[in-house]
Write a structure and sequence with these properties.
mainly alpha; Amino acid/polyamine transporter I; disordered N terminus
């Protein structure tokens, strides 16, 4: 690990209080990691086979832990308010900054679009009505929260994080006794690469690292602990969720897993499962929207109003133009974003370490 430099306490935009705990940082990381991706993991795993799919989650989970720790060390040793694109510009130059900015914008806006698609389907499954109208309703609520600022979001992340993890564990305990062991033997080599992008997307919480570091300034040991715990919680939950859902629904698993569970198990389970989906995507939308807003403000010096307008308007425009294929968008975003971020963050880490 890099040595922690003695630097003055810096709070990102004066938002956080110095009394923040490791738990606050953990909930921020898990809240910005667990989102629409968890709902797509069972489908991707079911297509290739349960055993291979679980191996994907374990191996890629280890990769994401390594990446998050690298970014964490960069944040510890950088005495500025920066997000990932800002790190690239500071240590690798303008070309790297603009390249990562392009990748980050495509990934972030695409991810926000995925949350709109998924929220519409989940809310429609609970209350009925048009998924499109429910997506627009969710967009209006989520956009207001993003506009309201980070302090409120920290509280929302913590509350929703507890609810989400409780529901996931409850669903898993309910489904595991119905586990069909024959699913462990299924394998479809023709879909071998399908889980790659989906799982990477689901595990990607890199935008949360700078935000979590802002909670624990000059507390490197606590920050590293929060990074490890905050990364391993989603990995563990994803494994349990994939085993539970695919072990029950098999190759009949739907693209948004909770929709299929509701159809198979009745109204009550439908409500609980889709409520979990709504909350998980809500935290993802709000957390990523906030990280994108801060990237535009911290790293690219946009004024706050312009940043908020871009964050909330672009996903809605894409949605209204008809970009609504859930799995394909997840797959492409996960593969492109993580591959690009990993290469650039490794280069930055190497340069910081040598300094």
């Amino acid at each position: 690990m890099l040595q922690n430099k003695q630097t003055p306490v810096i709070f990102h935009r004066g938002t956080y209080k110095p009394a923040a705990t490791v738990a606050d940082a953990v909930f921020m990381i898990t809240g910005m990691t667990i989102g629409a991706g968890i709902l797509a993991i069972p489908y991707a795993v079911s297509q290739v086979g349960l055993t291979v799919g679980i191996l994907y989650i374990v191996i890629l989970g280890a990769l994401m832990l390594f990446l998050n720790l690298m970014i964490g060390e960069i944040a510890i040793n950088t005495n500025e308010q920066l997000q990932l694109t800002g790190f690239a510009g500071k240590y690798l130059g303008k070309t790297a900054k603009y390249f990562l900015t392009l990748i980050f914008l495509i990934s972030a806006f695409g991810s926000l679009l995925v949350y709109l698609i998924g929220e519409g389907s989940a809310l429609s499954a609970i209350f009925g009505g048009s998924p499109v109208l429910w997506s627009i309703f969710f967009w209006s609520v989520g956009s207001f929260i993003i506009w309201s600022g980070l302090k409120r979001i920290k509280t929302i992340d913590k509350v929703l994080g507890v609810i989400i993890m409780t529901i996931i564990l409850g669903l898993c305990l309910f489904l595991l006794p119905r586990f069909d062991a024959s699913q462990l033997l299924y394998f479809n080599g023709g879909k071998l690469l399908l889980p790659l992008g989906v799982v990477l997307f689901a595990l990607n919480g890199t935008s949360a690292i700078a935000e979590a570091h802002a909670l624990l300034p000059n507390r490197a040991r606590d920050f590293r602990k929060a990074l490890i715990i905050g990364t391993l919680i989603p990995v563990t939950l994803y494994i349990l969720f994939a085993l539970s859902v695919v072990g029950f629904t098999g190759q009949n698993t739907t693209e948004i897993a909770t929709v299929g569970l509701g159809r198979a198990l009745g109204p009550f389970v439908s409500f609980i499962a889709n409520l979990f989906a709504v909350l998980a995507m809500c935290t993802g939308f709000i957390g990523l929207g906030t990280a994108l807003r801060e990237t535009l403000v911290w790293d690219h010096k946009l004024n706050d109003w312009s940043a908020v307008f871009l964050v909330i308007s672009v996903p809605l425009i894409l949605f209204l133009l008809g970009f609504r294929n859930f799995i394909i968008i997840l797959d492409v975003l996960g593969t492109v974003a993580i591959a690009s971020e990993t290469v650039l963050m490794a280069a930055i880490y190497y340069k910081v370490k040598n300094r």
